[in-house]
Amino acid sequence: MPPNLRPILLVVLVGLVLVFAVQNVANVEVQFLIWSIAMPRAILIAVVFALGVLIGWILHGLRRRRRQGADSAEQPGLPPSLRPSPRYDDRPRRR
Known about the structure:
By secondary structure, the protein is α+β, with helices and mostly antiparallel strands. It has a domain at 42-69. It is 56% helix and 13% strand. The chain has 2 helices and 2 strands; from the N terminus they run H-E-E-H. It has a two-stranded antiparallel ribbon with strand order 1-2. Strand 1 and strand 2 form a beta hairpin. It is flat.
């Protein structure tokens, strides 16, 4: 991507987010178990998105840690500092 295209894309993205927020100012009531809260729809969507990103980040970290543990078990004689990093090995990556 050309470097001068990034600021343009950033401005467009910020503009779209602002339009979205302005068009979704209506309050919605969210009920969960015994709690109930009213908030603007745009805030609710942003909170749900942030929770999804956080959960995905945590699960990705757990999966990476589990994979690194399996790689460590394959090479028990090497100290951790001399083991090849799984990020730079020559195994094909899933995309």
